[in-house]
Structures are given as C-alpha cells and as structure tokens.
C-alpha cells in the first residue's frame, strides 16, 4: 500500500477530521508564498516582504504597503485546487469538522467550505478604521494610494494579521477546540515555522496525525504518516462514498 493509499484509507475511517493548512495549499492555485525560496524575494521592492507586511510599516508607509499589497497579496483570479475542493466535499459529507488556515485568500470558502478558521484574517474583509464600514477585496484592488471609505473618508485597513499584530483570541480558541477534539489531524502545505499558529497543532491528542508537505517539517517525527508530495495530488486520491 502506498502512503497515499494509507492516507485515503485513514480519511475513509475518520469522521472527525480537522485540516490545518498553510501557504503550500495556495501555491498550487498559483498564489505565491513569500517565505519560499522562489517566492517574493528579490523582486521590485526595497524592503523584504516581512518588513512591508508589518504593523509598523503599515503605519509609517501606508502607500508603499498598499502598492505591495495590491500587487502581491490580492490574487483575485486564483481558483481552488483539488485540495480545497476535496476538503469542502469532506465537510459536506460530515467527515471534516473544521479547516484552520494560515492563508488569507478565501479559496476554501470559494470551494464551498463553511467552517474555516482564518488565523491570519482574509483579504476579502477590509474595514474603515473610522466608521468600520466593510469593503471587499475588489474595492481595495481598484483603489489607488491609500484606500479610503466612500462613506466617511476614513482610511481602510485589511482584516489581515500583520507581523507584530496578535491573532484573534476567538479564532485561536475555536482552533484549539477543534484540534484537541479531532480524531484525525491533517497538516498540509506548511513548514510549521510560523508561531504561534504552528504551536496549535501540538494540542492534537489522537493517533492519526498526517503531514503532507513537499519538504520536511518539525512535526515529521511526531506524525503517524508523512507524505512529501503535492497536496492537490494527495487529495485527488481521496474517494468519497
Ligand atoms: Zn468610514
């Protein structure tokens, strides 16, 4: 039996699956991972992505922040891949209870998933910092300079967790609940280097911990199954009854 067959078999026999995903889930939909070697480094920006995507930079250089953000973070033409689609099917079949994601692109919801815990927020929610009016990603994409509210003129900030900013406590608590109660935990497309998000997976108590990532991760030694393959390819082998 191949590792992918073993994985498909574990999914078949589980009805309380939780998926924890990172950038690798989205790169297969064409969204760049700025942490990867061939990601966003060495491009046309004076600062590294981690600097531009920090709270301090956003406050001090909002125009430069938005230039990068519109160019690199708003990938509104991306479409869900086989992993997103199969995860949504598993939820509809009652087998998957939650998706916890580090991604901000909304592709899981586009694929039809309902219970998606977005640790780092979403590019699809943007709020006026003065009156709190909500704007979609298209509004930001089609604005210039610093986007402003069409109701009050206040500056708009994406509901995305920037470096130096804390994660939402409600989202963390829900994520802990689902992970600690899960029968099967699938960690996909993340090298688990981003804390505190990566520390969450240590709350899993079961014995069906699967890591699917193209390269090795810190969780490999604790995992029951490690698959170093494309996540879309692995999920394409999951067959629903
Ligand atoms: Zn406003």
Tell me about this structure.
With 241 residues, the protein is α/β, with parallel strands linked by helices. The protein folds into 2 domains: 3-31 and 79-120 and 166-236, Rossmann fold (3-Layer(aba) Sandwich); 32-74 and 122-160, SIR2/SIRT2 'Small Domain' (2-Layer Sandwich), CATH 3.30.1600.10. 32% of the residues lie in helices and 17% in strands. The protein has a 6-stranded parallel beta sheet with strand order 3-2-1-7-8-9, sandwiched between helices. A 3-stranded antiparallel beta sheet has the order 5-4-6. The chain is elongated, with a radius of gyration of 18 Å. The structure holds zinc ion. Zinc ion (ZN) binds at residues 128, 130-131, 133, 149, 151-152, 154. Residues 128, 130-131, 133, 149, 151-152, 154 line the site of zinc ion.
Summarize the SSE layout with pairings.
Elements: H1 3-12, E1 17-21, H2 23-27, H3 49-52, H4 55-60, H5 62-73, H6 82-92, E2 96-101, H7 107-111, E3 116-118, E4 121-128, E5 134-135, H8 137-141, E6 156-160, H9 169-181, E7 184-188, E8 209-212, E9 225-227, H10 231-236
Parallel strand pairs: 1-2, 1-7, 2-3, 7-8, 8-9
Antiparallel strand pairs: 4-5, 4-6
The chain binds zinc ion (ZN).
List keywords for this structure.
single chain; 241 residues; alpha/beta; Rossmann fold; SIR2/SIRT2 'Small Domain'; six-stranded parallel beta sheet; three-stranded antiparallel beta sheet; 10 helices; 9 strands; elongated; binds zinc ion
Provide a concise account of the structure shown.
The chain has helices spanning about 5-10, 25, 50, 55-60, 60-75, 80-90, 105-110, 135-140, 170-180, 230-235, and strands at about 15-20, 95-100, 115-120, 120-130, 135, 155-160, 185-190, 210, 225. The protein is of the alpha/beta class and about 240 residues long. The model has no long low-confidence stretch (mean pLDDT about 90).
């Amino acid at each position: 039996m191949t590792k992918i067959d073993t994985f498909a078999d574990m999914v078949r026999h589980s009805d309380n699956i939780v998926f924890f995903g990172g950038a690798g889930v989205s790169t297969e939909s064409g969204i760049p991972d700025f942490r990867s070697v061939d990601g966003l480094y060495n491009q046309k920006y004076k600062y590294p992505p981690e600097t531009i995507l920090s709270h301090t930079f956003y406050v001090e250089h909002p125009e430069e922040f938005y230039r990068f953000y519109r160019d690199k973070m708003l990938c509104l033409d991306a479409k869900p891949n086989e992993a997103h689609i199969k995860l949504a099917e598993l939820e509809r079949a009652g087998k998957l209870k939650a998706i916890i994601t580090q991604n901000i692109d909304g592709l899981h919801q586009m694929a039809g998933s309902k219970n998606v815990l977005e640790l780092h927020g979403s590019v699809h929610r943007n709020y006026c910092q003065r009156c709190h009016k909500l704007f979609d990603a298209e509004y930001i994409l089609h604005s210039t300079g610093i986007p402003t509210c069409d109701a009050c003129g206040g500056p708009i900030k994406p509901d995305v967790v920037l470096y130096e900013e804390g994660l939402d406590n409600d989202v963390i608590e829900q994520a802990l609940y689902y992970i600690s109660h899960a029968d099967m935990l699938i960690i996909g497309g993340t090298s688990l280097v981003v804390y505190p998000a990566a520390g969450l997976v240590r709350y899993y108590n079961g014995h069906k911990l699967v890591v699917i990532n193209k390269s090795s991760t810190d969780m490999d030694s604790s995992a029951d199954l490690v698959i170093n393959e494309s996540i879309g390819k692995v999920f394409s082998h999951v067959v629903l009854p």
